[in-house]
Amino acid sequence: MVEPRGPGMALFTLRAGDEVRAPQFGDNAGDLDAEMVAIASAIIRLRTGRFDPSTHRDRYQEALRALIEAKLKGLPIKPREVITPPLVIDLMAALKRSLAQDTPAISGTMAKEKRARRAAAPRQRSLLLPVAGGRTRKEEPVTKPAAAAMRQRKKASRLA
User: Is this prediction's pTM over 0.90?
Assistant: First the structure.
């Protein structure tokens, strides 16, 4: 909802009834520790004072006024020195460069390991025991489809 307020506007987000939750604050009668309340009160008393805006400087406003006065007087305006941000490293590019450099070393060592395994395997085949496993076989279904069972019965009746 947009509402006019003085020279400006105020914007409020409206919520439906099911989106609003009940407050879950505790009762402040017995939930608060008396010692903690005393400490909080002491801190508030120490920090309480009058606000004096003259003690604070608005550096942006001062710089803007100085710029306007310089333009009105016709003085040359020197641009402020732009601080260059530090170089941002593109992590993806750095990772790709790193992988490109390491790839030959990795592939070379992996190729040596594969060759060593291939060379060792023929010499040791006689030592290997026949163990079932490692390979997955297509398992037969527990129940055969009805059409397949009917075919087997017809074959059996023809033979008999």
Answer: no
